[in-house]
Amino acid sequence: MSAPASVPDTLDTPSKQGFHRRIGVFDSGLGGLSVLRALHQYLPLAEMLYVADSGHAPYGEKDTEHIIARSEYITNFLLEQGAQAIVIACNTATAAAAQHLRNRWPNVPIIGVEPGVKPAVTHSPSGRIGVLATPGTLASPKFQHLVERHGRNADITLQACPGLAKEIEGGELDTPRLRELVTQFARPLQEAHSDTIVLGCTHYPFVRPLFEQVLGPEVRIIDTSDAVARHVAHLVTELPACAPQTCSGHIRFWSSGKPAHLSQIVQRWFNLECEAQALP
Ligand code: DGL
Fold first, then answer.
1. Which of 239, 165, 245 is nearest to 199 (CA)?
2. Nearest-CA neighbor of 203 among 94, 60, 18?
3. Using one digit for the tens of pLDDT, what is the confidence trace for 44-59?
4. Which residues line ligand 1 (CB under 6 A)?
5. What is the pLDDT of residues 155-208, one digit of tens each?
6. b/e per residue 22-61 (b: at least 16 CB within 10 A)
7. Smallest CA separation from ligand 1 atom 9, residue
8. pTM for this predicted structure
9. What is the Å distance from ligand 1's center to 216 Cα?
10. Which domains does the chain have, with CATH numbers?
């Protein structure tokens, strides 16, 4: 099957910067692959360790304690595998658990992601922006602070998208059900005349073409994965280099759900051979 329009044909894109480092990345499931893709583009020589917590997805509809416990377990696992830095490739887990992880591992760089409210406000000609995210992200104090900090003078429409990440987890990116959900969640933003829309969940870039079709070409869509990857690429220069023979652009995958499903998706979306293992 050919790669969908939102996904490059391969992860082997040209090098922007090359550093031999080992980086742990996790998400509730497949969404973090949108961040992994950008990380690999900026750091093609770094070894990436990716955990999809698909057995516990979606995080966006779980309570904070559960997400903190899962994030702690996975971070510990990634550090045991030799990760030098952790990227929380999930807005919901960042909102719920980033501070907890930083308190627990103060010497490990822990990089989170957050909805791109700031760039949206900067770029919106009308000041009317929309944010699509999980119910958990939108309800979190961290997100409320983000809006207070950067969105004071903007007219912001918040749209929770229950069920959308779960549907994307299935791996088919253009189903009638997905089109229905995208149309439903886009409608309040259209009614509010938002001209800039934030994809505030790392799963959503995989259905960006559907949002583009529904919202039309005048609406700007903000996805922060590239900015996050740039930030990580800059940050890891301060970490010691791994021996090139042990760390050379390889990506290892684990899943707490069905490893075969993750392998199949990585192969299908990125044309990359993948043998995901079960997360212990
Ligand atoms: N990909 C995640 C995020 O960025 C979470 C989706 C979910 O598990 O609900 O928020």
1. 165
2. 60
3. 889 999 999 999 999 9
4. 27-28, 31, 57-60, 90-92, 134, 137, 165, 201-203
5. 999 999 999 999 999 999 999 999 999 999 999 999 999 999 999 999 999 999
6. bbbbbbbbbbbbbbbbbbbbbbbbbbbbbbbbbebbbbbe
7. 60
8. 0.93
9. 25
10. 14-113+226-278 (3.40.50.1860), 117-223 (3.40.50.1860)
